[in-house]
Amino acid sequence: MFFANTAGGTGMVPTVYFKSVTGSNTVEFPGTVRATNVEYNSTGGATVQVEYDVWPHTLATDDATGWVVRRPGTASSQWVQVRWERATSDTNCLTLAEPHQWAWEGTNATSIARTTMKVIYRVGEGWTDCPGVVYYPVKTPEERLKEILQARQAPMVIGTRKSLQMSADERERRARDTLRRVLGEAKFRNFIKCGFVSVKAKSGRMYQIFPGHGITCVYEGEKLVERLCVVLTGNFPPTDSLIMRYIMILNNEQQFRGFAVKHGVEGFQRRQNVAERDQRPLSEIFKELKGGVVIGRPVARPAAVAKVA
Amino acid sequence: MVENVLELPVFKGGKATVQIKTGLPELGEGHAPAGCGCFRVMTEKDGDKRYSWDRHDFAQIQEAKAFFDKCVAEGLVPHRVGVDGRASAEIMVEFDPLAEEIIFVPVAMVAGG
C-alpha cells in the first residue's frame, strides 16, 4: 500500500507530501509496492522507508533514511515527478541504488476531491504503469469546526478575480510581453492579478477589457451601461485580442463601438463576490459533524422555564 | 543580409496569405537592443513577430520605412508605443525612425462577436 497526499504550495509546482497513515488517504495499485513511507518537504530533505515487493524482483524491507527526494518537473509542467535517490553510502540500500521515479497526473489541490491518478514506477530498465485512485483524508469534526471558526473571522469578501496563470503557449507569452510594454509594469501586474484591464476613453467612459473572447464592459460612473463584444477572428492568442481592444479604445473609440456587437445589461448580474456562510449556531454544526450525536451533558431546563413552555 | 518573411492573411477567415519580405533582423524573445527601434506585428502563428532597426543606420531606416509602408498597404494599423511603454492616442500615418516601438494591429481581422 502506498500513501500519498498533495497540497498546493507556493509557486507553480504543488508541494508534494507523502505520508503513511492508516485507513483513508491511500493510493492502491496491484501489488507492485507493499508499503512506502516518504516524507518530503520543500527544502528538499526527506526520509524514505520503502518496503518493496516488485515482480519479478522481491526486495526486502529497507530503511532508506538519508535518501533525498527531488522534483525534476518544471514550473510550467502539468506533470509533477518525484525522484528519490541515495544520498548516503548506506550499504543496506544497495539494492535500491538505481533511480526510482514516480509520476502522476491529475493532482487536485482541493481538500476533499478524489482524483484519478496515473503512477509510473521505474524499476531497473522498465517502467510500470500503475493506475490508482487518490483518496484524500477525511477531516475530523474538530478540524472542520476549526476551519468554520477561522472562516467566520475572515472578511466576507472572497477577493478579486482569479489571477492569470502561466501559459505554456509561446504565442501567448509573447503577446503578454507586448502587453507589458503597452501597459507599463504597474498596470500589467494588475492585469495578471485581476485578469482584466481598465481603460478610460476620451468620452469619459470606463472600459473593462478581458482577454480572449471576453465581453468588454462599459461603465459610466459606477454604473454598467453596455456590454460590447469585439474579437480578433482567427486563432490569435487571448492577450492579442486584449491589446487590440485596448489600443482601439484609446485611439478610436467610435471605430471600436462600430465593430462591436452590443449586449444588453438588463438581466445581466455580476457574479456575487461574497462568500456564503453557514450561519447556524456552532453547536448545531458540530452536532451535525459528529453524526447527530449530542456532545456533552444536555443541560436540564430550569423548572420554571419548563413550566412556562 | 538575411531576408525574413512575414506572412499575413489576405482577408478575414481566409487561408490565403501575403508575404512581406524584409532585411530587418528578427528579434526572438528579447527586447530591441539600445539605439534600436522595434516593430511588433500581431500574427496568429507567433503571437507577435518582432523586427528591429538601428536608428543610426541609414540603410536599416530605409528598410524599416519600406517594411512600414508594406504593412500599412496590407491593412495593418501602426500604433506608436510611447515613452515608458504607454500606448499613444495617435495612429501613425508616416514612419518615424525615432519611434521606440511600433505595434501593428490587424484591424481587418476585427469583428463583432
Helix content of chain A: 10-25%
Separation, N- and C-terminal Cα atoms of chain A: 58 Å
Identify low-pLDDT runs of chain B. Answer: none
Strands of the biggest beta sheet of chain B: in what spatial order? 3-5-4-8-6-7
Taking all Cα atoms into account, the compactness measure Rg of chain A is 28 Å
Strand content of chain B: 35-45%
Main attributes?
heterodimer, A: 309 residues, alpha+beta, five-stranded antiparallel sheet, three-stranded antiparallel sheet, 7 helices, 28% strand, disordered N terminus, disordered C terminus, B: 113 residues, mainly beta, six-stranded mixed sheet, two-stranded antiparallel ribbon, 1 helix, 14% helix, globular
Account of the 3D structure:
The complex is a heterodimer of chains A (309) and B (113). With 309 residues, chain A is of the alpha+beta class. Chain A has three domains: 133 residues; 54 residues, no CATH class; 87 residues, no CATH class. Chain A is 23% helix and 28% strand. Chain A has a five-stranded antiparallel β-sheet. In chain A, strand 6 and strand 7 form a beta hairpin. The N and C termini of chain A lie far apart (58 Å). Chain B has 113 residues and is mainly beta. Chain B has one domain. Chain B has a six-stranded mixed β-sheet, covered by helices on one side. Chains A and B meet through helix 2, strand 16 and helix 4 of A and strand 7, strand 8 and strand 9 of B.
Give me a quick take on this structure.
The complex is a heterodimer of chains A (309) and B (113). By secondary structure, chain A is α+β, with helices and mostly antiparallel strands. Chain A is 23% helix and 28% strand.
List the helices and strands and how they pair.
The complex is a heterodimer of chains A (309) and B (113).
Chain A: E1 2-3, E2 5-7, E3 15-17, E4 26-27, E5 33-40, E6 46-52, E7 61-63, E8 68-70, E9 80-85, E10 100-104, E11 115-123, E12 126-134, H1 141-153, H2 170-183, H3 185-194, E13 197-200, E14 206-209, E15 216-220, E16 223-232, H4 238-251, H5 253-259, E17 261-263, H6 282-289, H7 303-308
Antiparallel strand pairs in A: 1-4, 2-3, 5-6, 6-7, 8-9, 9-10, 11-12, 13-14, 14-15, 15-16, 16-17
Helix pairs in contact in A: 1-6, 2-3, 2-4, 4-5
Chain B: E1 4-9, E2 17-22, E3 26-27, E4 36-43, E5 47-54, H1 58-73, E6 77-81, E7 87-91, E8 101-105, E9 110-112
Parallel strand pairs in B: 4-8
Antiparallel strand pairs in B: 1-2, 3-5, 4-5, 6-7, 6-8
